[in-house]
Every structure is written in structure tokens, then in C-alpha cells.
Design brief:
- By secondary structure, this protein is mainly α.
- The chain contains four helices and no strands.
- The protein folds into two domains: 42 residues, no CATH class; 72 residues, no CATH class.
- Helix 2 crosses helix 4.
Length: 122
């Protein structure tokens, strides 16, 4: 299902300032009147990952790993963005139900939540 959105923005100030604003944020492909939201605040590249039920399941699996890794303790006491690979490998040996091929996606989604408050751009 496509996500097409149309918004109409009306700004009532000095026309020169409005033109300067729209010139700054315009999408170069569509021209004046369009907005490229990456111009004022660029989206971090790490957020540009798949958003799907697989990502949601994987994120839950990675959070299960975090619970084991922190012994259900206070997450703030751990550097969850730099976990040793051997800790992940030990968990994956026990949890054979987790597909190693998507583990990196799951890890990235978790790290995105920690850094940006959301697992993906969506």
C-alpha cells in the first residue's frame, strides 16, 4: 500500500523570507513548493533499514539477548552499543531458532532504538 501524502502549508510573513525558506528546503527533483525533509534535518543512514514483521520479531529476539546479557539488570549500567561479539555468539548457540542471516538487522534495529528512539526510519 503506497504512502502518498499531500499537505498544504500556508505561511503569512514577508514573501522574501518565505521564498528563501522554500528555496532552502525544496526537493531538487520537484522544485519550489516541495519539501525535502532531509535538508533541514538529515535522516541518519542507520535508520534506513527494512521495516517488517521480520524486523519486529528479530528486535524481540535481540531484546531477549539483552535481558540475558544484562542479567535482567539495569540497562543503564551497560554499554549496549558495544557488546562483544563472543557474547552474541554464545547466545546464538543456545537460541538456534534465531536466523543468523537477520541477526545483524535485529542488532541494528536495537541500536537505532537506543540512539534515535526508533528502530527504523518508518
Amino acid at each position: 500500500m503506497p504512502n502518498h501524502v499531500t499537505n498544504i502549508i500556508e505561511i503569512k510573513v514577508d514573501p522574501a523570507r518565505v521564498n528563501a525558506l522554500f528555496e532552502t528546503v525544496k526537493n531538487d527533483e520537484y522544485g519550489l513548493g516541495s519539501i525535502d525533509f532531509n535538508k533541514p534535518i538529515p535522516m541518519p543512514l542507520e535508520l534506513d533499514i527494512e521495516e517488517s514483521s521480520m524486523t519486529a520479531r528479530g528486535l524481540k529476539a535481540y531484546k531477549d539477548f539483552i535481558e540475558v546479557y544484562t542479567f535482567n539488570g539495569k540497562k543503564e549500567d551497560f554499554n549496549l552499543l558495544n557488546i562483544l561479539e563472543k557474547s552474541e555468539q554464545a547466545f546464538l548457540r543456545v537460541r538456534s531458532d534465531i536466523d543468523r542471516a537477520v541477526w545483524d538487522l535485529d542488532k541494528q534495529a536495537f541500536q537505532n532504538e537506543q540512539k534515535y528512539g526508533a528502530p527504523t526510519w518508518y
